[in-house]
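This protein record is not my work; I was only asked to verify it. Would you go through it and say whether the fold makes sense for this chain? Here is the record exactly as it was handed to me.
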Amino acid sequence: MVMDAVDELEEHWAAEIAALEFAVEDVPPGADAAFDSDVVVDRGVPLGRLFREGLPDIDQPVIVVYRRPIEARALDLDDRADLVFMVVVDLAAEFLGRDVDEIDPPR
């Protein structure tokens, strides 16, 4: 689902997000991130995070989507795919310094 979201973003933003890596982790680390713009939070639980400086094994910016919190909030597979897309778009917009509606215009 993350790669489907990335594929959709790349239709219009391929060059801009080429420097980004994407990853999935089961759960977020324990650190509080309620007021960090690089984190998408729902009811105090991170759903995804932008690591601007990368991670120990990745030397470029990384968007990490947290699988289990998203699964817990989704009603079904379609809802899960929509939520994953929303998290990826939010964090890509944050990385690019753009408004979410510019990255994914309302339909």
